[in-house]
C-alpha cells in the first residue's frame, strides 16, 4: 500500500487472491521467500502511461491518458483487453491485469497477463472522433506491442469498430500484417465463434461442474442476468443443452418468462433494434416485465450472473438458497460480492468464479492468435470443439487443485491455485528476471 498508494482496486484484488492462496504459500514458504516469488508477482514487468491527443469535431484538441500494464509474461505474450471508460486509472488497469494472469493461466494456453486502456469515453462520440482517438492511441501503443510480445483485445468500450481502427493504424505504422490484436472482424483475421465464446464456454463449464457433482443440466431451470453478449449466448447454449432459462435483465429492468426466454425475440430487441427489454412483452404476452432488479428472486436450479460487477448481493444469495438453487456460475467479472459468495458456499451451493467460468472469451482469443500465426481460419465447429475441451479442462483442474490442498468443492480456491501454480513454476524455472 505504501509502494503503490491510491490503487484500492489493485490492493483488493491482490489481497483476495493471496488470501485464497494462503495454503499453497505456507506449504512452499521457504522457497517462495528465497525467490521473492510473491514480491515479483505483484510488481508488473512494465507499465506504460502515455499522452493521447486527438482533435474533436469542433476542431478542439482533446487530451486523454493511455495505459498498458504488461504484468506477467512467464507463460506467454501479455494478453488482456483495452478498456475505454472515463473511470479508467492505473489502479483499475493493474487490478484487471493482475486477475488476468491467473485467468489466462487457467485456460492452459500460452498467454501471459496484461491489461490496458484509457479514460476516453466512446459514448456520444462520432465515428470520426473515435477513429481519431484510436489512431492516436495506437500511434504510441504500437511501440510496445506485437504478435509475439503483447496482444491486446477488446473490453468495455472497445468493440469491433475500435479494434478495426487500431489494427489499421498498427499496420500502417509498423508495416506488418500480424495478429497483434484479437476480436478482429472476420474479413481481416477474426475467429469464428469468438462472439459466442464466453456465453457458450460458461455453459460448457457449468454442465461439467454439475456432472462431477452427480447432476445433469438437462431439465433444469436457470436465471440469467444481463442481455448483452455473454447473456445472449449463455441462454442460447443453455437451451441447446435442454435447460430452461426463465429470466434476463438490463440496467433498467428484468423479464420473467415462465415458458423460457424466446431467444429470437431477445436477439431482435438487443442486437438488431438495440432497444430496451420493455419491448419483450410485445413478442411474449404471457411474460412479465419488472422495473429495477430482481432476477434472483425467481425459484430456479441455476443462477448465471452475466451482466456486471457486484450485481448478486447478500440478500440475493439468501433468496437463492431459500429457493433451493443448486449452482451459481459467473459469466460476468466479479458479479457476486464477497459476502454473497461466502454465504452461497457455506450453504452448499456449487459456486464457479468468473475467473474460470468466463475464461472461454480469452481462450478463444488465444485460438485467434494461433489461426493468425498459421495464416489459416478454422471452421466454427473446430473452434467450438476446442473451446469445449478447454472449459472441461478448466473445470477438472480447479476441482483437482481444490482437492489437492484439502478444499474439496471450493472452486474459488481451486481456480486461484490452479492458475497460480503454473505461473509460479514458470517464473522460478526462468531464473531471477
Ligand atoms: P454487454 O455490454 O454486451 O452487456 C452487459 C449487459 O449487462 C447489458 O444487458 C447491460 O444492460 C447489463 N447491465 C449493465 N449494468 C447493469 C446493471 N447495473 N444491472 C443490470 N444489468 C446491467 O457486456 P458483455 O455481455 O460483453 O459483458 C458482461 C460481463 O461479462 C462484464 O462483466 C464483462 O467484463 C464480462 N466478460 C465479458 C466477456 C466477453 O467476451 N464479452 C469475457 C469475459 C468477461 P444495458 O444494455 O442496459 O447497459
From TrEMBL:
<feature type="active site" description="Proton donor">
    <location>
        <position position="115"/>
    </location>
</feature>
<dbReference type="InterPro" id="IPR006096">
    <property type="entry name" value="Glu/Leu/Phe/Val/Trp_DH_C"/>
</dbReference>
<dbReference type="GO" id="GO:0006537">
    <property type="term" value="P:glutamate biosynthetic process"/>
</dbReference>
<dbReference type="InterPro" id="IPR050724">
    <property type="entry name" value="Glu_Leu_Phe_Val_DH"/>
</dbReference>
<dbReference type="Pfam" id="PF00208">
    <property type="entry name" value="ELFV_dehydrog"/>
</dbReference>
<feature type="binding site">
    <location>
        <position position="100"/>
    </location>
    <ligand>
        <name>substrate</name>
    </ligand>
</feature>
<protein>
    <recommendedName>
        <fullName>Glutamate dehydrogenase</fullName>
    </recommendedName>
</protein>
<keyword id="KW-0547">Nucleotide-binding</keyword>
<dbReference type="InterPro" id="IPR033922">
    <property type="entry name" value="NAD_bind_Glu_DH"/>
</dbReference>
<dbReference type="GO" id="GO:0000166">
    <property type="term" value="F:nucleotide binding"/>
</dbReference>
<dbReference type="GO" id="GO:0005829">
    <property type="term" value="C:cytosol"/>
</dbReference>
<dbReference type="InterPro" id="IPR014362">
    <property type="entry name" value="Glu_DH"/>
</dbReference>
<dbReference type="InterPro" id="IPR046346">
    <property type="entry name" value="Aminoacid_DH-like_N_sf"/>
</dbReference>
<dbReference type="InterPro" id="IPR006097">
    <property type="entry name" value="Glu/Leu/Phe/Val/Trp_DH_dimer"/>
</dbReference>
<feature type="binding site">
    <location>
        <position position="365"/>
    </location>
    <ligand>
        <name>substrate</name>
    </ligand>
</feature>
<dbReference type="InterPro" id="IPR033524">
    <property type="entry name" value="Glu/Leu/Phe/Val_DH_AS"/>
</dbReference>
<keyword id="KW-0520">NAD</keyword>
<keyword id="KW-0560">Oxidoreductase</keyword>
<feature type="site" description="Important for catalysis">
    <location>
        <position position="155"/>
    </location>
</feature>
<feature type="binding site">
    <location>
        <position position="154"/>
    </location>
    <ligand>
        <name>substrate</name>
    </ligand>
</feature>
<feature type="binding site">
    <location>
        <position position="229"/>
    </location>
    <ligand>
        <name>NAD(+)</name>
    </ligand>
</feature>
<dbReference type="Pfam" id="PF02812">
    <property type="entry name" value="ELFV_dehydrog_N"/>
</dbReference>
<dbReference type="InterPro" id="IPR006095">
    <property type="entry name" value="Glu/Leu/Phe/Val/Trp_DH"/>
</dbReference>
<feature type="domain" description="Glutamate/phenylalanine/leucine/valine/L-tryptophan dehydrogenase C-terminal">
    <location>
        <begin position="191"/>
        <end position="431"/>
    </location>
</feature>
<feature type="binding site">
    <location>
        <position position="79"/>
    </location>
    <ligand>
        <name>substrate</name>
    </ligand>
</feature>
<feature type="binding site">
    <location>
        <position position="198"/>
    </location>
    <ligand>
        <name>NAD(+)</name>
    </ligand>
</feature>
<dbReference type="GO" id="GO:0004354">
    <property type="term" value="F:glutamate dehydrogenase (NADP+) activity"/>
</dbReference>
<dbReference type="InterPro" id="IPR036291">
    <property type="entry name" value="NAD(P)-bd_dom_sf"/>
</dbReference>
<comment type="subunit">
    <text>Homohexamer.</text>
</comment>
<comment type="similarity">
    <text>Belongs to the Glu/Leu/Phe/Val dehydrogenases family.</text>
</comment>
<feature type="binding site">
    <location>
        <position position="103"/>
    </location>
    <ligand>
        <name>substrate</name>
    </ligand>
</feature>
